[in-house]
Amino acid sequence: MDKHTNSSSSSSSLKQSFKQYQSPVLACHASTDTNDTTLRKDYLPVHGVSEVIVGVLGGGQLGRMLCQAASEMAIKVMVLDPLVNCPASSIAYDHMVGSFDDSATVQEFAKRCAVLTVEIEHVDVATMEKLEQQGVDCQPKASTIRIIQDKYLQKVHFSRHGIPLPDFMQIDDLEGAKRAGDLFGYPLMLKSRRLAYDGRGNAVAKNDEELTSAVNALGGFARGLYVEKWTPFVKELAVIVGRGRDNSISCYPVVETIHKENICHVVKAPAHVPWKIRELAIDIAHKAVSSLEGAGVFAVELFLTKDGQVLLNEVAPRPHNSGHHTIESCYTSQFEQHLRAVLGLPLGDPSMKTPAAIMYNLLGEDEGEPGFHLAHQLIGRALNIQGTAVHWYDKPEMRKQRKMGHITIVGSSVGIVEAQLKSMLKEEGSETQTAVSPCVGIIMGSDSDLPIMKDAAMILNMFGVPHEVRIVSAHRTPEMMFSYALSARDRGIQIIIAGAGGAAHLPGMVASLTPLPVIGVPVRASALDGMDSLLSIVQMPRGVPVATVAINNATNAGLLAVRMLGVGDADLAARLSLSFCLRVCVTV
Question: Band of the pLDDT at 198, cuts 50, 70, 90?
């Protein structure tokens, strides 16, 4: 039964005017050219996409967030879901109550939609294929859904297209599983071919004696199983990819996903991996999505191994948990991008508009009311943290480990958003609740430099900039210097102020090891009145820039750091402007 059976007269008029563009089965004529995937403008209503109905199979949280994005784009989204109070029901343009596994229901639903898409891949793909033959516009294509539904077929497909994967093989009986164990070794990952997500459908056998129990845990060989060689990854990565009707590809920044009990727990954007790894991950994601058919957003999940390999794990043909952060952190959210793609609109800008973001999945911690109480407590703490956005999925039933919502924190550095997440997850009154990671590192070669370098710390304190002070010598403790420079960015440091006297190698050496900006402070030594320090720091070779201030002028180093941070921090920039005005007034 439809939710909006008693629509207003204006709504009825709008639907009636739209019928002139409908065939008996679909709301938009299909092109007779199978290679032409664009929505022809003469087939669109005269008022554009605002009169086109996008049909979504599924009304869960992904459907809900698609509806939210659509409402800001004047696009109507209709969902098909068996639950009367599914998450998308309250905000969808229309909600048809029914199963997306039932062929007759899906066909009836398709009659009311210009474009048919999915928020979950576990749909009746045979019906989608039938609809496509009748001319219904399905995005992505049913052929893609069929490949993705079967994880073994996924592996075969991507292997044929030269995508790097863990080794895998199909198994039909226990003897086949034992042969796989002999070939790949143990532990061995057994997986269900279909209906597997959020860790469901995976089982690990540590040796051949555990094969039988692993198979039974997955429902037996009749369900369809395959095995993968165990991949000792160091990080799990993901790339959201938008694909347009014109086959254009747009990749979002690589993110790191952190799982607990096989469920996505935290997503960090961007991923803290070398640029080479990011480029490799994006290249693999681009190739994987290019090998499929149809428009929309795809999520490409990847493994990063300890030897620097990036291997494809699996692909989802829809918006994904790893892309929820894009609502706040990117110029175009994954949900807007999906709508743009399926409607043939130009793909939006996927780049991040904030330096860092972290997404935390709000999972049920208990059943029923106690679970709701715990979730609301966490939301209350989240709303007290700057840069935090809460998304509640409005699910009526609370269960343990169920995805009830998510929380995204954006900020000026990875260290800051990680510290805010830790603060949010602590109980109120915790000593660590207000802890903030330093964003400026002040380093020097000797404690004898402290009387000079303390002026930089005083300036940072004046403007409330969190910082750290370390003694790091390029000559006496080179290993410590290497470690500090290489880890600074991952710890959330954004700027390094390095003071050195005499040979003054510290600023330049650190600048050669990190992509962070380095400000050099020449410290006056006993000989040459500090000129040796100054000349050593300013004469860096091309490619190793060090912003150098005057001899002993750590004050300016601190101010320069504050100004650099102020470019991306409106509050800090305002305090700087006030400070500048006061200084000018005093000078005059």
Answer: low
CA 145 – CA 156 distance, rounded (Å):
15
CA distances from 310 to 152, 232, 277, 279 (A): 19, 12, 7, 10
> What pTM, to 2 d.p., does this model score?
0.71
| Nearest residue to 57 (alpha-carbon basis) of 1, 133, 135, 140 | 140
Cβ proximity of 56 and 339 under 8 Å: no
Q: Closest Cα partner for 347 from 239, 247, 242, 240?
A: 242
Residue 249 DSSP SS3: strand
Burial of 3 (0-12, 13-18, 19+ CB in 10 A): middle
User: Does residue 265 contact residue 199 with C-beta atoms inside 8 Å?
Assistant: no
Strands (E), 381-422: 388-392, 403-411
Q: Is residue 272 within 8 Å of 281, Cβ to Cβ?
A: no
C-alpha angle 60-65-66 in degrees, rounded to nearest 5: 95
Q: Return the half-sphere exposure (C-beta side, CA atoms, 13 A cut-off) of residue 107.
A: 13
Closest CA to 138 of 118, 109, 124: 118
pLDDT tens-place string over residues 495-537: 999 998 888 889 999 999 999 999 999 998 877 888 888 988 8
Query: Which of the pair, 14 or 168, is modelled with greater confidence?
Result: 168
In terms of DSSP bridges, do strands 263-269 and 356-363 run parallel, antiparallel, or are they unpaired?
A: antiparallel
Rounded CA gap, 284 and 287, in Å? Answer: 5
Residue 362, Cα to own-chain centre: how many angstroms? 16
Amino acid (one-letter) located at 109: F
